[in-house]
Specification:
The chain is an alpha/beta fold and 157 residues long. It contains five helices and nine strands; from the N terminus they run E-E-E-H-H-E-H-E-H-E-E-E-E-H. Keywords: Antioxidant, Oxidoreductase, Peroxidase, Redox-active center.
Length: 157
């Protein structure tokens, strides 16, 4: 894993600017005023990642109802993410952390240097850019949808 360490809840979330599936830059700083969920995942088209993101897709109303924008990030190239997004009909942005490879994942302490991919880390950033919740799961362990729901409820409280 990266040496940067996972940012602590209550601190300012690390910035990131990454291309979406069409090459348009998406900057966390430009989303200030809106809460954002940043969800890092290892690989497009892989079994656990597909199951996790499809579960988020199917429960996108929970994010919409809380006014939270969902950004899913991996180190896959933009074109692979576009193909996967079109196949699965994801209603949220998939962002490519391909180059500089893993820079955003490193900033969030979830880059696996040995394998060159992001670990399963999720971060909820409030409208002021402060980290309000995070979870990082070990390799092969999906994040439960209930954890997102609890974090969204706490943000709204």
């Amino acid at each position: 894993m990266s040496g940067a360490g996972v940012p602590q809840v209550g601190t300012r979330a690390p910035g990131l600017t990454l291309p979406d599936t069409h090459g348009t830059p998406v900057a966390l700083a430009q989303l200030r005023g809106t809460p954002v969920a940043v969800v890092f995942f290892p690989f497009a088209f892989s079994g656990i990642c597909t199951a996790e993101l499809c579960e988020l897709r199917d429960d996108i109303a929970a994010f919409d109802d809380a006014g939270v924008r969902l950004l899913a990030v991996s180190c896959d190239p933009m074109f692979a993410l576009r193909a996967w997004s079109e196949q699965e009909r994801f209603p949220f942005d998939l962002l490519s952390d391909f180059w500089p490879h893993g820079e955003a994942a490193r900033a969030y302490g979830v880059f696996d240097e040995a394998t060159g991919h992001a670990l399963r880390g999720s971060f909820l950033v409030d409208a002021d850019g402060v980290l309000r919740w995070s979870v990082v799961n070990p390799r092969g362990q999906a994040r439960p949808l209930s954890a997102y729901r609890q974090a969204l409820a706490a943000l709204s409280a």
